[in-house]
Each structure stands twice: as C-alpha cells, then as structure tokens.
Amino acid sequence: MIHYFTVVMQKYAVFSGRARRAEYWYFVLATFVIGFAFGFTFSILGSVAGFSGRTISAGIELATGVIQLGLIIPSIAVGVRRLHDSNKSGWWLLVPVYNLYLLIRRGTEGDNFYGPDPKAPAVPLPDPVAMPTPPPAAPLA
Question: Is residue 80 part of a domain?
Fold first, then answer.
C-alpha cells in the first residue's frame, strides 16, 4: 500500500499515462488511513492535554484541510491516469456514476491512445549467449 502511495506522490501532477487499478485504489485506501490516523491522533492528544472540544475540533479541521489540500492534485492526477487505462478522457472524472464504473473496471489490455499497458511486462533484453556471433573478419592481404 505504501509503495503505491509513494508512486502516486512521485507523479504528483502527472496527468498523462496510465494507472493500474491497484495503484488507484491503494492510493485511495492510504489517503483514507492517513486522514483517519491524523484525526484519531489529534483527538487523543487533545483529550490528554485537556483542551476543550472547540479547540480540538478547530485543530482537527485545520490539519485535515492542510492534508486535503496537499492530496487533491495527486488524487485528481491518479484518477485521470486510471481513466486513461480504460481508454477514456480524464474529463469523465466529472460524471458522477459512470466514473465510478470506469475506475472499478479492468483497463484496456495492450497499448492504447494514452500509453503502454502498465500491466504488460517490460520487453526482455535478448540473451547475449543465445545471439549468433558474427563471422571473423577476413585477414588483410
């Protein structure tokens, strides 16, 4: 899960290319867990320190807002790349129900308009042992 989160964060504002289902949904799960952990931690720290409920609520809202602002661009970017995997434009992210269907379904197999298949194995390099050796050069007379 952390691997996919770091992959998405490394492609912070990259809207081109394709993203696998695992990359998208593990990122969604990681952002949910991070948000929950921050909220839980702030509420525990606030109650231990004896702050009033209003102070705790303001702190949690401020921290959550900062986290959400930091994650909005990569969230949109990975959503667009996920739609590209289904060979659809990123603008479909704005259509409420259909985008969920596109985010859940399997991506297009093989290359499509938006790039190579992210599930496709890398092209293997030829084995140098199995390659034929060139004939020896003719001696100069």
Answer: yes
- Which residue, chain included where needed, has tokens 């596109």? 102
- Cα torsion angle, 98, 80, 18, 34, sign: negative
Overall average pLDDT of the 28-46 stretch? 82
Residue range of the domain that includes 94:
2-104
Closest C-alpha among 70, 64, 6, 69 to residue 35: 64
Q: What is the pLDDT of residue 43?
A: 73
Residue 116 lies in a domain: no
Mean pLDDT of the chain: 82
Q: What does the alpha-carbon distance between residue 22 and residue 30 come to, in Å, rounded to a whole number?
A: 12
Helix (H, G, I), strand (E, B) or coil at 107: coil
Backbone φ, ψ for residue 89 (5° rounding): -70, 155
Residue 90 has pLDDT above 80, yes or no: yes
What is the reported pLDDT for 35? 81
Q: Does a structural domain hold residue 54?
A: yes
